[in-house]
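Fold this sequence, please.
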Amino acid sequence: MNYSEQRKRLRAVLAGSKCLSPASVFDPLSARVAEAAGYEIGMLAGSVASNTTLAAPDLIVLTLTEFAGQIRRIMRASRLSLIVDADHGYGNALNVMRAIEELEHAGVSALSIEDTALPIRFGQPEGTDELIAVEEMVGKLRAAVKARQDPALIIAGRTAALKVEGTAGAVARAKAYAATGVDAIFIIGVESLDQVKAVHEAAKLPVIVGSAPASLKREDLAARGVRILLQGHQPVAAAVKALHETYIHLFNGGAPADLKSRIASPQEMERLVNADTYRQWQRDYLH
């Protein structure tokens, strides 16, 4: 399939002046729901993929093949411009090249490669982040750019340096990563507008922010180069809570009819799964 339309749409966002937030999605049906709500941009985080595909924590136990497979299923069902978190690229620079190949083919519009040393090494203090050397990360990003086949695919260099090395470290890394030819800088651990401004001015690239304090207004972030602001992954948590409450209700003998106001109607479910299209195919090809 050709995903250039979705990629060009997202590139237009990065080239624009507004700061938007994607819908956090986790499977084909959630992507359809997000589109029905009006979203054009989606996000599949590595943590969410691990939670929903394996029911496992975000400890880099999800494989590239499993991740790419879920992306293919989402993109088969939706027209979202999908941003994905490709963690550390699943290994060294050569593994990054393989990751780019698989994820581009799966249909992503943008992906990020991060400089956190993953998976957590033996003996690493609990709750801490360690970063790989700038030179190693630069090699990974250069490899990622080289491996890209569709020039519309967006590659972002992600750094956790604000949390580990402070603003000066983040600025130095952003400048080095920008020189590799990536399209955006993805930063986490943002606490102030000054940090965002410093990174943006050093990289001279659009910025993606992985959550920010509520005190930082969207328009102020936009004025400092932020084009994508993640807002967490509440939809999957909301789905878990709704499932749990529904199961408890039914397990305890509650009537299915009592759930009517809390669940999607049969008509809404049919719209989301394109039931009319499938019925037409049945008429055309099975009768």
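The chain has a mean pLDDT of 97. The chain is about 50% helix and 10% strand.
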